[in-house]
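Model it.
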Amino acid sequence: MTVAINTPAPVRKTVHVAVAPQKAFDVFTARMSKWWMPEHSILKAPRESVVMEPRQGGRWYETAVDGTECSWGYVIAWEPPSRVVLAWQIDGSWQFNEKFLTEIEVRFTPDGPNGTRVELEHRKLQAYGETAESMRAALDGNEGWGAELASFVAATLS
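Modeled.
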């Protein structure tokens, strides 16, 4: 007997920022330390920075004040200022797992003379297996991507 695995819909979020696409892209990628919520760290020590190496194949990780690092994934596609695709290798126990993979695609589209529509899609959530629906709910909820993107929007204003 074959058991069907339910494939959850991707998490999709859209925000508008009052900056040009290049600045929105730069804040999202190069200034992630400024907006990624500190309570969303998987380090044991307090976080010092979030780093996304600006190239395809680049590492995506966080560093702690004690010098330790924790990988989150890597850059799949680097297309400034319009698109970045990231490998998210944080599994259902909220730990880095090099054999685990979901994807995050973020698109930056001009929206008016000095604005940008930022569209995020977190997909391939079936990788979470039996916990896929609960993980989707967590990522889609108020404390997930919604909170992170609200923090990102605020960071574009400074």
